[in-house]
Specification:
- This protein has 333 residues and is α/β, with parallel strands linked by helices.
- The chain is built from 13 helices and 9 strands.
- It has a 9-stranded mixed beta sheet, with helices on both faces.
- Helix 12 packs across helix 13.
- The protein starts with a helix and ends with a helix.
- Bound molecules: iron/sulfur cluster.
- Iron/sulfur cluster (SF4) binds next to loops.
Length: 333
């Protein structure tokens, strides 16, 4: 199975509960950024995400209140670099106690000391290592030599120690899909549990010109779609078809909400129009129908996983052919 049974059932029962409550829009994933401190300064990452002071981090209580307020079954802990969060073991254990599934997104530099030595493997926990290509490309993206070799060594260790291990790749303008295929071959030989791939889209505050326009996204993702059956990609077939320009979807910015030291970010992970300090006001005041429509000019080139994966799943549930494709995808991974 592509995703573990517990993870799939938790999502399915949450979605069924939302349906019973008659909710058209609801969050599914919280992207929790407890800190804006990082030990790398990657190209394609906004400055605020790596230059924050550790003292400005969220407390564990603030993190847990955000989780409880939005009620999601899945928490993606990112940042900044979450392994630098001093209270990480406490946070992870509190999330597991709440029966939340937790995706720890990391550059892997501190995995050994900050995770392997302090946080045991658990069925709720997924280690998700950032890996944007083979050695030369990844080290270029990370602006530091040796990061790729370290990440591969940590993925091997993570698997050996019994952690569920995923990787996360962004396809940029200069990315070659042949290289992504080479990376997938390597990751498959290392028996990673999932490979997440998403098109790079420009944050407002990023200066590097490394991001894809719409045509480039379609071209590159047509090839990703062709090779997707060979690998354990975690992106659904419907999302990959959308990224390849073969189907249209509305955006679901409400499905992946973002909370950081600045508050609840609106309208989505990519655009920071406004930050709200409490979840209820954020949820009530954001004009979700407008952002769903993708009429804002800044949405024109966007095909981000965080905005469209939920739409892809909902669309697939609406017709038998797509449902069968989804079932085959889940059971053959
Ligand atoms: S299309 Fe992209 S930029 Fe626009 S709201 Fe959706 S996720 Fe945000």
């Amino acid at each position: 199975m592509r995703f573990p049974l517990g993870f799939t059932l938790a999502q399915a029962s949450y979605q069924a509960a939302m349906k019973r409550q008659g909710r058209k829009r609801y969050p599914t994933v919280l992207m929790l950024e407890p800190l804006y401190t990082c030990n790398l300064a990657c190209r394609g990452c906004s400055t605020e995400r790596h230059t924050g002071k550790l003292s400005d981090r969220l407390s564990v209580e603030q993190c847990l209140k955000a989780v409880d307020d939005c009620g999601v079954p899945i928490v993606s802990v990112c940042g900044g670099e979450p392994t630098l969060y001093p209270e990480l073991p406490e946070l992870v254990s509190a999330l597991i106690e709440r029966d939340k599934y937790l995706i720890l997104c990391t550059n892997s530099l501190m995995l050994e000391t900050k995770v392997f030595e302090t946080i045991p493997p658990d069925r709720h926990l997924f280690i998700n290592v950032h890996l944007d290509g083979m050695r030369e490309t990844h080290d270029f993206v990370c602006n530091r030599p040796g990061v790729w070799d370290h990440a591969i060594a940590m993925i091997k260790q993570s698997k050996q120690r019994g952690y569920q291990t995923w990787t996360n790749s962004t396809i940029f303008k200069e990315s070659r899909i042949e290289e992504f295929e080479e990376l997938c071959d390597l990751l498959t030989s290392l028996k990673v549990d999932g490979i997440l791939v998403s098109p790079g889209y420009q944050y407002e505050s990023v200066e590097e010109d490394v991001f894809l326009n719409l045509e480039q996204t379609h071209q590159k993702f047509r090839r990703v779609l062709e090779i997707s059956h060979k690998y354990r990609l975690t992106s659904t077939p419907a999302f990959l078809e959308f990224a390849a320009g073969l189907r249209e979807l509305d955006c679901s910015p409400y499905s992946t909400v973002n909370y950081s030291p600045l508050g609840w970010k609106a309208p989505c992970y990519l655009l920071d129009e406004k930050y709200y300090q409490d979840f209820q006001t954020f949820w009530k005041e954001v004009d979700w129908a407008w952002w769903e429509s993708r009429k804002d000019p800044r949405c024109a080139n966007c095909k981000m996983h965080s905005g469209f994966e939920h739409s892809a799943v909902q669309a697939a549930m609406g017709n038998v052919k797509d449902m069968l494709k989804m079932a085959a995808w889940q059971f053959t991974g």
